[in-house]
Amino acid sequence: MPIETVDKIWMDGELVAWEDAKIHVLTHTLHYGCGVFEGIRAYETDRGPAVFRLDEHIDRLFNSAAIYMLDIPFDRDTLIAATLETVRVNNVPSCYIRPIVYLGYGEMGLNPLPCPVKVSIAVWPWGTYLGDEGVKHGIRLKISSWRRHDPNTMPPAAKGTGMYINSSMAKVEALKAGYDEAVMLSPQGNVSECTGENIFIVKGGAIITPPTSAGALEGITQDSVRRIAEDLGVDYRVENLLRSDLYTADEAFLSGTAAEVVPIRSVDDRELGDPGPITRQIQETYFAAVRGEDDRYKDWLSYVND
Ligand code: PPE
């Protein structure tokens, strides 16, 4: 589905018309993939649109940039205000938000340091990432033949643009084989994460998710799942998982800003079946939290019209 356009995109401190948000073909990041980005969502609430966990996303953007030695020419507060403003001026009840920090037109060659650091924030309406059916009934996963990055090859803690070639290859492989999404293993063979989501199993009443050392991004939705699990009194553990742990799980689900919380129906054709009770509870609480319907999580929302 093509992107649903809106009026304005924030580029380097200014709101420009959607169709004018263009860059030069010799933009450094286009050639070498050295950029960092975020994926954020704003949800419709009874007080207008609210951005979910905005501070944490902007913090991660700065951490990603620090890892790649990209010196963002704006401070945190400016990017937080710019995000809220971009959602506000586009008059969308809910949307996906994509801040990106990239190296612009300047010098060529592998040394990124002389290039200008540019920042853009785009928003657009985006429905369910893995399909409405997937959110309700669960999706089918396949273990990818592509391994996730080793932390000393590409640091998974940075949400870097170029790193996603790996995810895209895994995604295409899974889709061509008739599955909905891929699970990637670390170079050592532990479960890492999906192409754009963290993964969880439920076993003996506890939720277990792999550590960052297995190559997973430290997900902000994953952290929301942790807090919700604690509040529900469900044991939550960070431990290495083998692919066979996925096959024999009582329940499994994944989480991400774009994907939200999605049940897993099967892994490599081992059926886990309909979404289980813990997955359902986490999912329902998450959707209530993002819509401002659960007071326990009100500190996670930044209201655009406040
Ligand atoms: N792992 C990866 C590799 C990843 O890309 C994401 C987010 C996550 C885990 C979950 O992180 P969080 O969103 O903080 O819970 N993936 C983003 C990009 C998806 C895309 O298609 O692009 C997202 O969900 O916005």
Overview of this protein structure:
The chain has about 300 residues and is of the alpha+beta class. It is about 25% helix and about 30% strand. The chain is built from eight helices and 17 strands. Strands 8, 9, 10, 11, 12, 13, 14, 15 and 16 form a nine-stranded mixed sheet that branches. β1 (about 10) and β2 (about 15) form a beta hairpin. α6 (about 220-230) packs across α8 (about 275-290). The mean pLDDT is about 95. The chain binds ligand PPE.
**How does the overall form come out from the CA principal axes?**
globular
**Tally of separate helices:** 8
Bound molecules: ligand PPE
Main structural class: alpha+beta
Give the rounded overall mean pLDDT. 97
Count of β-strands = 17
Q: Compute the separation of the termini in Å.
A: 33 Å
Helix content: 25-40%
- Which regions are unreliable across 5 or more consecutive residues at pLDDT < 50? none
Strand content: 25-35%
The H-and-E topology, N to C, reads as EEHEEEHHEEHEHEEEEHEHEEEHE
- The radius of gyration computed from the alpha-carbon positions, rounded to a whole number of angstroms, is 19 Å
User: How would a crystallographer describe the biggest sheet?
Assistant: 9 strands, mixed
